Amino acid sequence: MTRLSPAQQAEANFRPNTPVPTPLVDVAAAVGLEPADVHPSGMNTQVTGVSLNTKTVLPDDLYLALPGAKQHGAAYGSQAIAAGAAAILTDPAGADLLRGVEVPVLSVQRPRQYVGAVAELIYRDESVRDIKLFGVTGTNGKTTTSYFIDAVLTQLGLTSALVGTIETRLGAETIPSSLTTPEATQLHALFAKLAQTGGQSGVMEVSSHAISYQRISGLHFAVAGFTNLTQDHLDLHGSMADYFDTKAELFSSQRCDTAVILTDGGEQGYGHKMAAAVSAKLVRLCTDGTDPEADWSVTEVTPDGLGHAFTLQHKDGTRIQTSTGLPGEFNIANAALAAVMVLSADLSALGITRQELVEVLSGGRPFDTAVPGRMEVITQEPAGVVDFAHNPDAMIRTLSALKEASAGKLILVFGATGERDTSKRAIMGAIAAEYADVIIVSDDDPHGEEPAGIRAQVMAGAKDWIREHDADRTLLEISPRQDAIKHAAELADRHDTIVLAGRGHETAMDVAGTVVPIDDRDELRHAVALAQKQARAR
Ligand SMILES: CC(=O)N[C@H]1[C@@H](OP(=O)(O)OP(=O)(O)OC[C@H]2O[C@@H](n3ccc(=O)[nH]c3=O)[C@H](O)[C@@H]2O)O[C@H](CO)[C@@H](O)[C@@H]1O[C@H](C)C(=O)N[C@@H](C)C(=O)N[C@H](CCC(=O)O)C(=O)O
Ligand SMILES: Nc1ncnc2c1ncn2[C@@H]1O[C@H](COP(=O)(O)OP(=O)(O)OP(=O)(O)O)[C@@H](O)[C@H]1O
């Protein structure tokens, strides 16, 4: 047997243990074709898996050769066949490119619309329907809220899967993620495997890309939750209206049974608009006292360690006291959303009583769960924090929380990513200048763009703000990021707070197609230790 590449091995780990062969004629029927549309050579062909990327094709797979923004998947047909693909599904343009290949080729218009249905057919498992699936969407807070839900489900003793930006986890098996929401092919495989291994629940982040690219096609959520909507991903969506409409698709009754919407921000906020767009059963949650129609509200917020204790109050009078150990007021919202999402699911079929759930929420401290790279405290004196904030709203919330908590200066290292929403760069520069005392503009995943040009746009935003407000700030531009972090550590005294924003848990940066290893958490730890050693030596 040929050895699998690491990408193939990762794919194999999250496929059902016992694949069931599916006749190609059944696949043809699922995409609206007749048996006569299948070439005679394919009449006896069977497939046991499906992939839409040649790098993750496994032997006997169906390869979905989709037209893309950059290229046509059919151009990679020979790689798919070399990896063992038994058949290919594509569109007419792809079929032209694949003329003469040695495996049967099916052709339909717009094949992406069938990805979910085909994956569901190939990985079919009756018990998948019994899995309670939770989906979280919103600009910020998806990962944190998902980890919080996972912590509650795990404390309830459920076997659960977690899918998101950081990792895909199924029981003891974990692989790092390359996407926030994987492809529909991978999701259907994962949940079939979960069902086969006795899993009862799953929680996943649902990005707006995933909704646009139909990665959640064929999935149905018991409960879907909305955190917030602020500027991001305008490169994909073009406008906030399109971004909003895309997210709203998750809350239709076809997609979920219950939608829990965080309605913070008042009547003009996106939470209220989202609540109005819901066609599933609606549960409104408000943490800032601005929604008189809220089903659940957050009250009695008090500081508790680095985080907060608070009460969840239902309009029927039910009160549940809980807390989160993670800093930042936004983590109250994340914890409250996680709690209300689980409270809104009917877990009785899984043998879980309401009483057991309330006990976990009020006594189990599930929201103390550390989330990698989210307000992660790396050093003390100076306080060193790594946070994933990489858009304007997240930066405001993170920096304001840390400014309030810092006994000294707030020293920030950050950059903006290349080939993504360029309009947020100057805005992020201005926010940095507003909240931090020392602003070090550096690099963050430039991808194919010239890093100096990206930094210049961020610097311009920061300079404008400082000039307009005649503010006393130290503004520096330092690249590479490692040097910026070292300099931040050298500038800090023990009362100061250093925050590295934007990269969170990530361990490598894409610089013009080259993967450059860098982990902010390691860099900060070493930089602070080195600066302390140098200070002692002086
Ligand atoms: C912008 C975007 O989301 N693009 C997605 C889209 O790409 P595309 O249509 O442009 O595809 P393409 O690159 O032209 O390639 C065409 C086809 O050839 C296939 N191919 C290509 C090369 C190869 O060697 N083998 C191969 O099979 C590709 O899998 C694809 O099906 O469809 C591809 C699969 O069909 C996705 O892999 C790809 O995601 C790329 C990798 C990506 O980086 N997406 C990011 C932006 C994303 O989805 N991010 C969100 C989170 C965002 C956030 O909240 O921060 C996420 O959920 O991760
Ligand atoms: N509820 C929230 N509101 C605003 N900002 C938040 C919220 N929760 C977290 N943040 C900020 O956003 C950053 C990313 O948080 P998290 O990873 O939980 O969100 P996400 O939606 O998964 O982000 P992404 O889609 O970019 O991975 C955090 O590091 C923090 O700075």
Describe the structure in your own words:
GO terms for molecular function: UDP-N-acetylmuramoylalanyl-D-glutamate-2,6-diaminopimelate ligase activity. It contains 18 helices and 25 strands. The protein is globular and about 80 Å long. It starts with 5 loop residues before the first helix and ends with a helix. The protein binds ligand UAG and adenosine-5'-triphosphate. Adenosine-5'-triphosphate binds near residues 330 and 374.
What integer is the average pLDDT? 94
Quickly give the CATH architecture of the largest domain.
Answer: 3-Layer(aba) Sandwich
Q: What is the end-to-end distance?
A: 62 Å
Secondary-structure-based class equals alpha/beta
Strand content: 15-25%
